[in-house]
Amino acid sequence: MTTQTQKNNIEHFKNILKSHSLKATPQRLAVHEAMLKLGHASADMVTEEIQKSSGTKVTVASVYNILTSMAMLGIYHHRLSSNNKMYFDVNTFRHFHIYDCENHQYRDVVDNDLMEIIEKYFSRRRFRGYSIENIDIQLIGRPTRKRKAQ
Predict the structure, then answer these.
(1) Contact 39/90 with Cβ under 8 angstroms?
(2) Contact criterion met (CB below 8 Å) for 41 and 35
């Protein structure tokens, strides 16, 4: 990501915070900058990235609280992995995930054609007592031998 794009994202992030009557604190900005770098990350990973790159003082607990509040506002998405760790996703556009269950990593998959087929199928289905708000698909996989060697 280019510096200009990051700058625009930070300015956009500040505007989103302002629209929710939240201050753009150094901790919130550091968390968002780390998330822009990492894409998908746990609070531990974000804390480590912040300490490595910016020197802003944060605890894992404060990072987790910031990430959770950003997810509650819809700025990030979140998902629980098979190792019972919450991971946050800075990308909120329509996409699927491949979850690497050995390395506990997420990878985005963008396939608009498949998403349209799935959405069309579920738009015709009814589930008694529920209205479907969102479709969240996660594929679970293991690295192939070829990938493991890399």
Answers:
(1) yes
(2) yes
